[in-house]
Design goal:
alpha/beta; two-stranded parallel sheet; elongated
Length: 264
């Protein structure tokens, strides 16, 4: 393989000591076979030091930081206790301009602060301000385009899951991977849609509104109201499938969950 692959572990392949004294992940098997470059594992649970993989091509220097999945509450507690440290490349001087020679990327696989509780996630304010780009794994929704962080000093790209793994609205968004180009301190990230993903659509139906829109077709006193309801829902599913077929250029299967509101 001509292009090296760098990877961190996620929460489904995190290192364990099952079957022996060594802390091993399933990714270790790929690493010892020289198929991937595995980095970002932390062997000490009470003292985390994140060191970068340094890459250089021409005048462009990239420092790639990685942090594999850890228990969110424990990591949050260590971060608050200042036990998470990021090591920066050594320089002959401490000049800040020399520090800025490196384009810093941080990859992690943790919960984001999306209403899960202040102690069950990593907050954007915890990440060092001198990072340039954060690639945030674990979250399933695809938000590949870099967005400005809450602290305003770096950008965040959330690639999301490559396939639908749960029946949520976020999974219905188009799955993409990204092509990152870096030159000096400038970068651009191009989203590339995946064309072989089985997609599904999500819709919401308010049966009371449907009854009013269709002139009382759905009447709770009608002995055939269940039959009428099935017809309305079937029509809604057909509409969802049709809208997906317009946007997709390949053959696929669809799962269309509907959120229902009862008849008034």
């Amino acid at each position: 393989m001509d292009l090296p692959i760098f990877t961190i572990h996620g929460n489904h392949d995190d290192p364990t000591r099952d079957g022996g004294p060594d802390l091993l992940s399933a990714v270790d098997l790929l690493s010892v076979s020289n198929l991937v470059n595995y980095f970002g594992r932390q062997d000490e649970v009470d003292n985390i030091k994140v060191s970068p993989v340094l890459l250089q091509k021409g005048d462009t220097k990239v420092a790639l930081y990685g942090m594999g999945s850890m228990r969110d509450e424990r990591l949050n507690r260590m971060w608050q206790g200042k036990k998470v440290k990021f090591l920066r490349p050594e320089h002959g001087s401490t000049d800040e301009d020399e520090q800025k020679e490196w384009f810093n990327i941080f990859t992690l696989h943790q919960n984001r602060d999306l209403g899960r509780g202040s102690k069950n996630c990593v907050h954007e304010s915890m990440i060092p301000e001198w990072m340039d780009l954060v690639v945030w794994g674990h979250e399933h929704e695809c938000n590949i385009d870099p967005q400005e962080s809450l602290v305003g000093t770096f950008r965040i790209s959330q690639p999301g899951s490559s396939v639908a793994t749960s029946l949520t609205a976020g999974e219905s968004k188009r799955k993409q991977v990204g092509l990152l180009e870096i030159k000096g301190q400038n970068f651009r990230l191009q989203g590339i849609p995946l064309s072989c993903v089985r997609s599904f659509a999500v819709g919401e139906v308010n049966l009371g509104e449907k009854a009013r829109e269709q002139g009382g077709v759905l009447d709770i006193e009608d002995p055939k109201v269940e039959e009428r309801m099935s017809e309305v829902l079937a029509s809604e599913v057909d509409t969802l499938v049709s809208s997906c077929m317009i946007n997709m250029q390949h053959r696929t299967f669809f799962y269309c969950p509907l959120t229902l509101s009862p008849l008034s």
